[in-house]
Amino acid sequence: MTTLQEKLTPSFCDGKLLVQALTHKSFHNENEEQSVGHNERLEFLGDAVLDLILSDLLMQRFPQLAEGDLSKIRASFVNETVLADMACECGLKEAVRLGKGEVRTGGGNKPRILASAFEAIIGAYYLDAGFQKAFQWVEELFISRLENLDLNLHFSMDYKTRFQELIQERYREAPKYVVIGTEGPEHEKIFYVEVHVVGKVVASGQGQSKKLAEQEAARLALEKLK
Asked: Whole-prediction pTM value?
């Protein structure tokens, strides 16, 4: 655990908190007598702590942005995919404790499990070391993403949000995205998506994930409306 602690944070005073943060509910259910508990409550706390810290960092870095734009950026930082990547960078993929069933089904590769463990670690470190140290650690983890954030690119690429705002203004309802097919092996799968407005197909897109295909469909739909 020492190597993991060095990779995660300067140190945990309470090693049990770290172990609990790494314990998935499936492991706890199978080893309840020996378990220190699972990480769901710590995940709940870590989610709130992470939102607060990122809100502070974004307000400091972008004093010119309105609340809505700050919310969009924060949401892009705390989505499941990003947090799962952060978990891997911190070594959680190898450290998270899973039940036998989750191990068999590849639980260590599931973004939801990894993202949850990452938030739980933040919650545990907040309890262990206090807000200031938790703030410093989260800032260190996200600093490169903050420094490399291109606002023009960020907002121009959020086609789904722009399209939804436009459609809701015009029709008082949100567009609907429908997966119409996939092809290719699991690790190289291509998704095909249509975007519907008031029951009609406006555009279709494709991508290496459902989200990317939806963004492409929204981008093409925006071009048509222009």
From this structure: 0.68
